[in-house]
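Hi D.,

Good news: the full-assembly prediction came through. Inputs first.
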Amino acid sequence: MSSVVLPRAEPIRPAKPPRKALSTWQVWGIVLIAPYLLVFAVFVLYPVSYGLWLARHPASYVTLFDDPVFFRTVVNTIFFLLIAVNLKFVLALFLSGFFVHEKTWIRWLSVIFIIPWAVPAIPTIFSIRFMLNPEWGVINSLLFRWFQVDGPNWLTNPQLAMAMAIVVHIWKALPFWTLILMAGRLSIPKELYEAASVDGASGWQKFKFVTWPSIRTLYITSTLLSLIWTLGDFNSVYLLTGGQPADQTHVLATLGIRYIRLDQLDQAMATIVVALPFVLPMVYFMMKRLSGDEQQKSS
Amino acid sequence: MNSRNLLREARLWLVGIPVLLWTLIPIYHIFLFSISTKDSAFSGRLWPEHPTLRNFGIVFREDHFYLHHFWSQIWNSLWIAVATGVITLAVATCAAFSISRLRVKGGRAVMNAALFTYFIPAAFLAVPMYKAMGSYGLLNNRWSLVLAMVTLAAPYAIWVLKQASDKLPWELDEAARIDGATPAQLFGLVYLPLMVPSLVAIFTYALLLAWNEYLYAFLLLSHENTIPLAVGLGHFLASDDSPWEILMATALIYGLPPAAIYYAFRRYMVGGLTAGAVKS
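Then the structure:
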């Protein structure tokens, strides 16, 4: 009965002898995995299939491409991804080198540094939103008090607002990736650095010939994973700008939700289908990577 | 030699101080507003002239238009978070035991399906999920958010628990089988006690994920009696002249519990799947 909800064909396992009948242990195995299969079937498989079916009309895509908001959103999304992800990782790479120093105050700083990742998104994004308010916000108040200049309209100028969304995203996600890269740096054997010092290598040369070759794979995989997650970052944009002014600061993640709010569900699904040729290869790559690790371990 | 060390130290402080300010300013801004009166909140001072706890009193007494349902919202948040934690833990533990210890046929395919769910951006899954919840008749029912959060939390949970249970020695299972243990006894008497640290971590993870969630909460729940505090906070932005100092006090109350829990279980919370996923 549970084979009905199995999402994929069962894989072939040549290593094991074929079983004749289901043993008690296999029956228990099926019973215990059934709840998750049910969750997957009811809340992933069915919704996704139904959504794709809703998105089958070419007319949805014509309407979508004719919507000026859509073109703007695609441009925003590309800029958001390219700048936010790369800037975040260059900073994380640099800061991971800072946080590996074995000093007490740096260890305490790393505990504080993780706060943005540990707290929920809403309070801090609202806080930044208030700081950026052009009339009452603390940033423009201080600009006026110190330099007698009127600060810019941070969130009503579309370009500036997107830039601020990138800042919010980096503020929130930087600690996590810094810790990941830090773990990568800490796993490099110390002898390599000692040998490099004996040979008279400079700091830059140590980075180029020891650190970077050791963490390059980690850096690239992390960047890809972060690219997928940044594409789905709804909070940093929506809670900061709400897509305003005039729907000029949407990214794909918020545009889909905007169409839902406008009760245009076919458009919402079409928005997501448009992104799939970009998302699925990355998801496939990440899944393959994890499965690859599995095989190495079990063999 | 000594002056070179000093220069090194100075360079570290040159990085450390901006990092500290960058991290703390938005947090301090919340705190500052929450202890300021309405007039002094906008004065641009670093410390209010007359710090006050009045704002928190207003929140606890639900003494403002946006706060009429504060206690019911916090109750909803708690209820949704605990339910998500319990169900995720139950579903994921059973699945991980089945895949890892019972070597169920097709376990690998199930693991792939779970990973697929994990990597698809949650904001993308939200659109079809919203539609499906509508057709199940669950919109505006707190269960819809709980089930959605279980769907999002379970893949990571199964992955972490499977990694942890793969590390348990096989001899344990063999010994139990030779002694004639049933699968249920192996699960309850051998497996679960050994997995306690990972189970605590997964429960915490799912709990925090559900408490912090905004997007799914505001899509699936809109009725006053069902919304969690996250959505209630979002309502403050409905008008331009929102009482910031009260919003920030509420936001602080909302943000403190998950932060405290995060720090209490910090050593479990980073790493896990991502460390596994990005391992070179």
